[in-house]
Amino acid sequence: MPVMRPLIRHFASIPRADLLIGAAIIVIGTVEALTVAPAYGAADDPEIWWIGQALVTGVLLWYRRKHPVAVFILMILAQYAWHRQGNEGCQVWQFAALCIVFHTVGSHLPAKPGAAWALTGILIFDSGAVDHRVLPLDEVIFLTVSFGLAYVTGISLRGYLVRVHRMAERAALLEVERERRAAEAVAAERARIARELHDVVAHSVSVMVMQAGVLRRSLSRRNDQSEGHSGGHVAEVLAGIEQAGRDAVDELRVMLGALRMPQDEALPQPGLDMVGNLISTVGASGPRLSLAVEGEPVRLAPGLDLSAYRIVQEALTNAVKHAGPAEVRIRIAYQGDALELEVADDGRGAACELSTGNGLIGMRERAELFGGSLDAGPLPGGGFRVQARLPLARGVSMSEVAG
C-alpha cells in the first residue's frame, strides 16, 4: 500500500481529460489489434504487439501538456517505427493521437516555436519520411489540412485562454482598486468628521473652559476682597466646570486621534497591559528581555493605550531582529503628566531597518498624534534606543480601579 500512494498521487496530478484521452486511445488500439488487424496489412489476427504500441501512445498523451515538444517528437518516432514494421496504413487511433499532439503544440507553445514545430512535423509527414514511400498528392493535401487544422485549433484555444487570463487579472486589479478607493473614501470621511469635531466641538468646549476660568478667577479675587462665603462656593462650582471641560477636551483629542487611525485599529486592540505577553512571545527569539514599570500605572484612553503598545511592539521587534545576542531593556514610566516608553539594547540594531509597518516614521506619527514625541538613535557605548514621551490627561490610577 505505501508503494501505491506515490503512484496514486502521480496520476492525480495528471489532468483528468488527458487521462481519459490516453485511456480511450489504449482501448481503441487494443480493440483494433484484436479485431481488424488484417485490414491494416497485418499478417496475423490478432496482432498482439500492436497493444504495446497503443499503450505507449496513450501514456505519451498523458504528458502532452507538461512536455509538448518531447511528446510531439516521440509520437513522430513511434509512427516511424510503426511503418518500419511493414504496416502500410495508419490506424484511426494513431491518426487521432497525431492530431491531438499537433493541437497541443499550438495551444501550449508560444507562436513562433509552435509554428516551427508544427511546420516541421507537416513537412516530415508530407515528404514520406515517416511512411517510407512517396505520398500521392491527395494524401499530402489531406495530411496538411488535417494537421494544420489541429494546430490552428490549438492556437485558437491558446488565444482564448490568454484573453480569459488577462480578463481575470484585470478584474482582480479592478477589485483591488475598488477596495482601495473605498478605503480611501472611508478614511477621508473619517478625517473630515475629525476635523469638524475639532473645529466645532473642541473649539466650543475650549471657549467654555476659558470663560469659566476667567469667571472663577474674577470671583476668587472678589471673594478675597470681601471675605464672603457664597462667592467661594460659586468659585468651587466653576472650578469643577473648568476641570470637567478640560477633561472633555483631552478625551475629545484622544477620540479624534483614534478616529484618524486606520479603520482596523478601531476594533478592540491590545494595550500596555499586554506587553508582558509580548515579551513571553518573542523571548525565545534570542536577546534577553527585561521589563521595568516605574510609577503608578493609570488607565489610559483606548487610542493612547493602543499607540503606546504599538510603539513598544515595533521597537522590540526591531531589537530582536537586528540586535543579535544582546540584552533588550523595556521601560514604562508613568510620570504623572506623561507616559515615557523606552526600548534599548546593547547590540547592533540599525535605525534604518525597523521591521514592521513604517518603522520610525510610523512610531513617530503615533506619538505625535497624541501630542507626544519620539527619539531614536544609536547609543554611545553601542546598541540602539527608542524613547517616546506621550502626554497624559488626568488619569485614573489602577489601584483606584481595583478598589
Can you describe what's shown?
- The chain has 403 residues and is α+β, with helices and mostly antiparallel strands.
- The chain folds into three domains: 4-135, no CATH class; 201-264; 267-402, Histidine kinase-like ATPase, C-terminal domain (Heat Shock Protein 90).
- The chain is built from twelve helices and seven strands.
- It has helices at 4-13, 16-35, 49-62, 68-84, 92-108, 111-126, 137-226, 230-260, 275-282, 302-322, 359-369, 398-402; strands at residues 288-294, 298-299, 327-334, 338-345, 373-378, 384-391, 396-397.
- The strands form two sheets. Strands 1-3-4-6-5 form a five-stranded mixed beta sheet, with helices on one face. The protein has a two-stranded antiparallel ribbon with strand order 2-7.
- A hairpin with a 5-residue loop joins strand 5 and strand 6 (384-391).
- Helix 5 packs parallel to helix 7.
- Residues 349-357 and 395-403 have low confidence and may be disordered.
List keywords for this structure.
403 residues, alpha+beta, Heat Shock Protein 90, 3 domains, 5-stranded mixed beta sheet, two-stranded antiparallel ribbon, 7 strands, elongated, disordered C terminus, transmembrane, protein dimerization activity, two-component regulatory system, EC 2.7.13.3, transferase
